[in-house]
Amino acid sequence: MKSAEYSIIHKHKLPPKLIELLKSSESSSIVGFGATKEQQDFMVLSAILASKNTAFFEDLTKEFDEYLVTLSHSLSVHSNN
User: What's the mean pLDDT in 51-66?
Assistant: First the structure.
């Protein structure tokens, strides 16, 4: 995930812990093996996630919950217009 022109990060409204995770995967020296780019990216993310502690996952879960509530609310407001 080193290539500057290839970035899976779209920062618009994503939870901060997710952005942190994606930035880590892009700047990591970890090599992901797989037949496709998606498989390679998955292996890199898996290796990074394996090194995270419980507090990181608790924070990530909390941020995702808040994100999904906000997204759901935003979608329902836009669908009612």
Answer: 95
